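lol ok so funny story. i was supposed to be doing the assay writeup but got distracted and ended up predicting the structure for this chain instead. priorities right. anyway since i did it might as well share w the group, maybe its usefull for someone
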Amino acid sequence: MIQQQEIIDVLKTIYDPEIPVNIFDLGLIYKIDINEEDDVQVDMTLTSPACPVAETLPPMIEQAIKLQVPETKMSVVNVVWDPPWDQDKMTMSAKLELGML
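and the output, tada:
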């Protein structure tokens, strides 16, 4: 059975190309579901609806999960806009990295 921390570890290797912080610490990941068949579903948002990687980032994440957690049968990334992303969703380490604290 895949553990949620395994997926988080993968997500922490993926960076927004415009911001030098990984997508997990940026607060872009809203939900991680792993079912009994080792299918992984991730709900995420982007910093802006006009984000230039809106089309390419989700498939990149799906592929990274499959490659780095080989037990994964299927991975699906859904982009959601509710609730909208804001800086409060960032971890303290992300805020420190960006000089916001």
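The first strand starts at residue 29 and ends at 34. The CA atoms of residues 29 and 44 lie 4 Å apart.
back to the writeup now i swear
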